[in-house]
Amino acid sequence: MSEELKRLSENYCLGQYKELEKDLENFILKNKEAIKKFKETELEMHLDVDSPSDELAIKLYILKTRSINPDTEIKKELVEIEKEIWIQGEKLKSSPDRNKVAIEWCKSHAPGWRDNWVFAALYIFEQNKGYYLRLLE
After folding, report:
1. Can you give the residue ranges of every domain in the chain?
2. How far is the C-alpha of 57 from the C-alpha of 36, rounded, in Å?
3. Ordered mean pLDDT values, 10 residues apiece, the chain (137 residues)
4. Model confidence, pTM
């Protein structure tokens, strides 16, 4: 098991993804028709996949949108930026330029953070696949 998957599993077992679980539920319910249309158009026509599964449709739709709940994700990213501001302040032994640290964090870490968040959403989907698939019915 990769280190990232091990960390995800541990955090999931500790209940650290409860908010993401709820966001994923809301995402599927809110995008139910869009996911079905995506399955019929993009998967069947563009990828030439005959009768793609709902599981494949949901997973690929998540990957396509790369966001489950933008409000939650932005708040989580802001927490990470605040941590980085604190770290930089400790290193400098003074207050860092908050804007500069935020911009640097976004350049250096935001894409990877987003990738990890999407990966976590897919992991959660996989752990509760039956429940999430029933939401699409």
Report:
1. 19-135
2. 8
3. 87 92 97 93 74 90 93 93 94 91 94 92 95 94
4. 0.85
